[in-house]
Amino acid sequence: MDDPFTGLPPGVWRGVLKFEPSYITPNPKGKPLPEKLDMKYEDVTQGELPFLFTVTYPSADSFYITLQLGSRQLIVRDIIFGRDFATAKDTLLVRLPGAEGYLRGLYEEKIWEGEWVFTDTTGNTQSIPFTTRQGQDYLFTTLRKAPSENFSGVWNLSLGMETDNPESGQLELIHTGNQLEAILEWRNRRFEYLSGTVQGEKLYLSFFDGRDAILMEGKRQADGTLVGGISTATERKTLWQASKNQRN
Fold it and tell me: For the whole model, what pTM was predicted?
């Protein structure tokens, strides 16, 4: 039977941006680099930033995408669906609101894959490969390991611990069961809709809205601090450390 839909099939989709996991770096001063801190996150696939969206058909011949950003939903209607006659595959180009970049790729058999094209802070065009699959409704993992504690609260961040000049920031965590949401304040910006999971003593957070992409992984230390790595679309993985803000 022919596909009855004019675009992507309706329902929940899970996507991953495939960051380059090139974390090995020179370390002449013996500073604590991420790969030297035994930060192995076996619960997830390393170097992949996950995101969720749904496809909805208000009519038989049109559809829109709803990108899930934690508790926020971003409606996407700027969609061009076509055909690549060289490969006999369907093509899809999606422009996200408020972003200069776009997602473009080929669709076949409930899989849409291609690249996220965006402009970095220097004005250069870059791209990161992505893959999405229909019917997957989890973000990082389907595991449900009991959290070692509740991580809710405001945490004071130091980012770039392997450098001579770490940056300061703040991370507010809202933790319920295995679910985790966060507000990240960093570099004079406020990212309000990070979402992810807690598995045992480890935590995972992601953010992707077409303009920015952030992946955070961390774990609790014996002294109660958190330590982990953060990657963005334009910067390689760097080390962060956090202590809980004890002020009321």
Answer: 0.88
Write the burial class of residue 29 (CB in 10 Å: 0-12 exposed, 13-18 middle, 19+ buried).
exposed
3-class secondary structure, 150:
coil
Hey, what are 199's tokens? 């598995």
76: tokens are 């996407």
Distance CA 118, CA 115 (A): 10
Q: What is the pLDDT of residues 139-190, one digit of tens each?
A: 999 999 999 999 999 999 999 999 999 999 999 999 999 999 999 999 999 9
**For residue 181, what are the CA distances in angstroms to 31, 58, 66, 174, 204?**
30, 30, 19, 5, 10
Q: Beta strand pairing status for 48-59 and 11-18?
A: antiparallel
Distances (CA, A) of 140 to 35, 77, 93, 123, 199: 20, 26, 25, 31, 10
User: What residue ranges define each of the domains in the chain, with the CATH number in brackets?
Assistant: 11-134 (2.40.128), 153-244 (2.40.128.120)
